[in-house]
Design brief:
Layout: E1 15-19, H1 24-36, E2 41-45, H2 49-54, H3 61-73, H4 80-93
Parallel strand pairs: 1-2
């Protein structure tokens, strides 16, 4: 588990990936990140929520099993599954840290 201590020290000079970066939280987070921490690179991923809402998704049985397991675990926030997800995002993107948030 990541200890927050001084949160800005986590972002001193690394590359940071922000998902949902154009939503209200992501926009404010990115502004504060740039003002306070001075990372070397910021990557912002976002989506048009109005378009995505009506799009089609492909959800396989493995995803259904994973989501069902989380729902049945009683953990709806900050579950061990979130920590695994954050680790996988950091691994795939080459980031030192990844933090999942919900807005």
């Amino acid at each position: 588990m990541l200890s927050m201590g001084n949160p800005t020290s986590l972002f001193a000079d690394p590359s940071v990936l922000v998902t949902g970066g154009t939503g209200s939280f992501g926009r404010r987070f990115t502004q504060n990140l740039l003002a306070l921490a001075r990372p070397s690179k910021v990557i912002v991923f976002s989506r048009d929520e109005l378009v995505s809402r009506y799009g089609t998704q492909w959800i396989d049985e493995e995803a259904v099993v994973e989501v069902t397991a989380v729902l049945r675990s009683g953990w709806l926030a900050q579950s061990p599954a979130v920590e695994r997800f954050e680790g996988k995002v950091a691994e795939v993107t080459g980031a030192r840290y990844a933090v999942a948030v919900s807005g």
